[in-house]
Description:
Blueprint: E1 5-12, H1 20-29, E2 36-41, E3 44-49, E4 52-60, H2 65-72, E5 93-101, H3 108-124, E6 129-131, E7 136-138, H4 139-147, H5 153-156, E8 158-164, E9 169-175, E10 184-190, H6 194-211, E11 220-224, E12 227-235, E13 243-248
Parallel strand pairs: 10-13
Antiparallel strand pairs: 1-5, 1-6, 2-3, 3-4, 4-5, 6-7, 8-9, 9-10, 11-12, 12-13
Helix pairs in contact: 1-3, 3-4
Amino acid sequence: xxxxxxxxxxxxxxxxxxxxxxxxxxxxxxxxxxxxxxxxxxxxxxxxxxxxxxxxxxxxxxxxxxxxxxxxxxxxxxxxxxxxxxxxxxxxxxxxxxxxxxxxxxxxxxxxxxxxxxxxxxxxxxxxxxxxxxxxxxxxxxxxxxxxxxxxxxxxxxxxxxxxxxxxxxxxxxxxxxxxxxxxxxxxxxxxxxxxxxxxxxxxxxxxxxxxxxxxxxxxxxxxxxxxxxxxxxxxxxxxxxxxxxxxxxxxxxxx
Length: 256
């Protein structure tokens, strides 16, 4: 995976791209404060926004339905009961949105800005879905998240869930921090804590991405000064050759 570029596919009902003016208008409505410029060229749209040089290129053909459905299992949208008006599997074409960093490697700010560009393109083209390596989201979830100025972490970070041991244990795993060259996060909990675990995971992914470094073993992370958990480094449940930073909601930090 390249550390200085980001690639997302917007699933659309027709073959085409937005106009430069439409993209810039939507980004301003989403409170994008980065310097912006966009021009139409022969093969697509070229945008220079903040630290990103972004190409928006129309593609004929569709993403296989099975691939889209599999990606939707990793979308945070499903945890918020976000039914898509049009299933992402229903589309006639794609638009590739590829952002390259002008300076340095991908940062948290670049992830957030790329997500806003994708949301703007999805809205203008009446898209049904947004697909990347990390997850496939209903377009309505992407657009509403950006328009209502909610945290964008769920747009660039996928979420997978698996059952663990002992019985009743759930493991929530982020899928997006590797874009920054960082370890993914794992949050473990029991079934009654599953909603809380999702927020811990998304908040933790945002924190680590902004921090720009991995959490270390025995370091602590919390969603408040009175509610912290110690970090442990463990093999990834999906790739034992990699490590993840684990937070266990059953294991609050105890005062000495």
